[in-house]
C-alpha cells in the first residue's frame, strides 16, 4: 500500500527531507511499524525513534499504535512550539 | 459578522480591527484577547535576532478549528478569532492573536486562555530562533503541558 | 514607554494603539486585554437604549492605582493600561479597557482578570440605563462579589 | 469640626443633593455616628441607612466604625457597578 509521509522542523532538517511517497510492504500497518521500517535506513533515521517525536495520521495527532492504511498522510514532528 | 475566523498568514494583523469585529454586533458585553510578541532584543550573546515559524499546512487549520469546537462545548461564546503568523519575524513583532467575545467576562477570559493553552501544545507550529551564536529550534516547555492539564482534570 | 497608564474620560479609545503601547518595548512576550462593551439593542421593551456612567473623581483614580499595586504584588508584570469611559454611551460602544503585559501568558491573563474583578467591585463607577420604560440604576451583581472572593481565599 | 460630604448615583438622586459642607457636633466622630446624625433630617434620608450604602473617608472605602475627623471628605454611595 502507498502512503505519503511528511517530516517537519528539526526532524525535517535531521533527515534532510520534507517528505516522500512510499510503498509499504505487507505487515507495516501501524505508526509504530512504519517508524521501525524507516529506522533501518541508517543512523540519521534514529532521529525518528526519539520518543518525543509525535505522529499524525491524516492531520490528526495519534498514538504509535494507530493504524496506517493505503492513501494515508502520515506526519512525524517534534513537540510543537507555536503561539 | 462571521462568528469565527481562523487565519494562518505571513502578514501582520490589526488588533483594533480584530477586537472591533468581535464586539461589533453589540450583543457581546465582553471581549478578552491575547497577543503574543517575539521577545528579544537583549544584549546577551544568545539574544534572539529573528524567529522563523514553520507549520503543517492543513493540519494547523484543522487543529485550531477543533480547539474552538472544544471551547464552545465548555462556554457559551460569541465570536472567536484566531490569527497565527508564519515565516520570519523580528523581536517586538506580533506572532499570535486570540480574541473571544462572550456575554460575561469570566467566560471570555477562560475561553481565551483555554484556546492559547491548546494552541501552544496541539497546533503544529514550530519556532526556530536566530542568534549571534547560530540558529536553534525552540524546545517545548513542560509548563505548557502543565497549563493544558489544568483543563483536562 | 510609561509602565502604567490610568485614564478616566468621555472619549473612546483605540484598542490597537493601547495593545501596541503594551507590547512595544519588545521585552514582554504576552499581552492580555479586556474590552467591555455596552450590551443592548434587543427588541424587548426594557432593552437598553443608552447608558450613563457616573464616577467619584479622585477616588476612582486612587482605587484603580491601588488595584494595579495589588496586581504587581502578585505577579511580575510589564506595562498595565486601564481606561474607563464616563458619561453617556450607546449599545455597542466600548466602556472599559484593561491591558496587561507580562513575560508569560498566564501572568498576563491572571492579572488582567484580577484587575477587572477588583475594578467591578472596588472602583467607584455607577451605571444608569435608559430604556423605553424609563431610566434605572444598574444593580450590583452577587457574581461580581464571588469573582472577587476567588482572589481573597 | 467640619467635614465635606458627597453623595453619588441613586443615593444622590434620592437625597436631591450632590453633597454639602457640614459642621458636626461633638460626639459625631465616626461614619456610623454621621449616618445617624443625618438620618434625623427626615424620611428621604432613610436611604442613607440602607446597609448596602457604602462609605469612603478621604477616598478610601471604610467600615462604619471608621473615625471621622476635622477636614475629612466623607462619601456615601450604593455598591459600584462599573466595568
From TrEMBL, chains A, D:
UniProt entry tagged with the keyword Protease: no
One Pfam match: ThiS
Membrane-crossing segments per the record: none
Keywords: Nucleotide-binding
SUPFAM superfamilies in the record: MoaD/ThiS (SSF54285)
Keyword hit for Nucleotide-binding: yes
Family named by the database record: Belongs to the MoaD family.
Protein name: Molybdopterin synthase sulfur carrier subunit
TrEMBL record, chains B, C:
Entry similarity comment: Belongs to the MoaE family.
UniProt protein name: Molybdopterin synthase catalytic subunit
UniProt cross-references to CDD domains, sorted A to Z: MoaE (cd00756)
Catalytic activity: 2 [molybdopterin-synthase sulfur-carrier protein]-C-terminal-Gly-aminoethanethioate + cyclic pyranopterin phosphate + H2O = molybdopterin + 2 [molybdopterin-synthase sulfur-carrier protein]-C-terminal Gly-Gly + 2 H(+)
Top-tier EC class: transferase
Pathway in which this enzyme or protein is active: Cofactor biosynthesis; molybdopterin biosynthesis
UniProt entry keywords in alphabetical sequence: Molybdenum cofactor biosynthesis, Transferase
InterPro entries per the UniProt record, alphabetical: MoaE_sf, Mopterin_biosynth_MoaE
Molecular function as annotated in GO: molybdopterin synthase activity
PANTHER family to which the protein is assigned, alphabetical: MOLYBDOPTERIN SYNTHASE RELATED
Stored Pfam families: MoaE
Keyword Lipoprotein: no
Entry EC no(s): 2.8.1.12
Subunit (UniProt): Heterotetramer of 2 MoaD subunits and 2 MoaE subunits. Also stable as homodimer. The enzyme changes between these two forms during catalysis.
Amino acid at each position: 500500500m502507498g502512503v505519503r509521509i511528511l517530516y517537519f522542523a528539526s526532524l525535517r532538517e535531521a533527515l534532510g527531507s520534507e517528505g516522500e511517497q512510499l510503498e509499504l510492504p505487507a505487515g507495516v500497518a501501524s505508526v509504530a511499524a512504519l517508524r521501525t521500517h524507516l529506522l533501518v535506513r541508517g543512523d540519521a533515521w534514529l532521529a525518528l525513534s526519539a520518543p518525543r517525536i509525535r505522529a499524525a495520521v491524516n492531520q490528526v495527532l495519534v498514538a504509535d499504535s494507530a493504524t496506517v492504511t493505503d492513501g494515508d498522510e502520515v506526519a512525524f514532528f517534534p513537540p510543537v512550539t507555536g503561539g | 459578522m462571521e462568528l469565527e475566523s481562523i487565519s494562518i498568514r505571513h502578514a501582520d494583523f490589526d488588533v483594533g480591527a480584530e477586537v472591533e469585529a468581535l464586539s461589533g454586533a453589540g450583543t457581546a458585553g465582553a471581549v478578552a484577547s491575547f497577543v503574543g510578541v517575539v521577545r528579544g532584543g537583549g544584549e546577551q550573546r544568545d539574544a534572539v535576532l529573528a524567529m522563523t515559524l514553520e507549520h503543517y499546512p492543513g493540519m494547523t487549520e484543522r487543529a485550531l478549528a477543533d480547539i474552538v469546537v472544544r471551547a464552545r462545548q465548555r462556554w457559551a461564546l460569541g465570536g472567536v478569532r484566531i490569527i497565527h503568523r508564519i515565516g520570519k519575524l523580528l523581536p517586538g513583532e506580533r506572532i499570535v492573536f486570540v480574541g473571544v467575545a462572550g456575554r460575561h467576562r469570566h467566560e471570555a477570559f477562560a475561553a481565551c486562555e483555554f484556546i492559547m493553552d491548546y494552541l501552544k501544545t496541539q497546533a503544529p507550529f514550530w519556532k526556530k530562533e536566530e542568534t549571534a551564536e547560530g540558529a536553534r529550534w525552540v524546545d517545548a516547555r513542560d509548563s505548557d503541558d502543565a497549563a493544558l492539564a489544568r483543563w483536562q482534570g
